[in-house]
Amino acid sequence: MLLTLWKTGIRVSELNHIKKSDIKDDTLLIRCGKGSKDRVVPLAFDLRNLLLTYSDNIPGNRFIFGVTREQVNNIIKKYDRGIHAHTFRHSFAVHYLKSGGNLRSLQLILGHYSLMTTQVYLMLSGVDVKQDYDKIVW
Fold first, then answer.
1. Residue among 65, 57, 55, 50 nearest 12 (CA)
2. What is the pLDDT of residues 28-82, one digit of tens each?
3. Contact at 8 Å (CB) between 55 and 64?
4. Helix boundaries (H) for the chain
5. What is the CATH number of the domain that holds 52?
6. Which of 29, 55, 65, 89 could bridge 20 with an S-S bond, Cβ 3.0-4.6 Å?
7. Which range of residues forms the domain containing residue 99?
8. Which residues are catalytic?
9. How far is CA 86 from CA 14, 49, 73, 96, 135, in A?
């Protein structure tokens, strides 16, 4: 569950609505995301296999996780009291951008209507700025 949040950047409300039929070869179909919009999110092969294995014991086409935001946050608090479910979404976005991902693509993955909403994840720390500066050949 936590790996799914981190490797896809989806919201907890979207995590709760994943069914086995939403898992494709290299994508995950998000149904009724924020604003009741559907979208497709890239899915790493290892996560796909893990989700399919996990869902093998779930009969029919029921929700794979079906947990509340509070339940997810309680699970997370067992590991670290300083983070919450949305931290995984934020971490995904920052990691995506730092790995060279395109801001417009990130907007589509996260399901943001406005690019300005996605730009929040462009905030850099002083360490990031220094590392980028150090890459310059003078």
1. 65
2. 999 876 777 899 999 999 999 999 999 998 988 899 998 888 999 999 999 988 8
3. yes
4. 2-8, 12-15, 45-55, 69-79, 85-98, 103-110, 115-118, 126-134
5. 1.10.443.10
6. 55
7. 2-125
8. 11, 34, 86, 89, 112, 121
9. 12, 24, 9, 15, 31
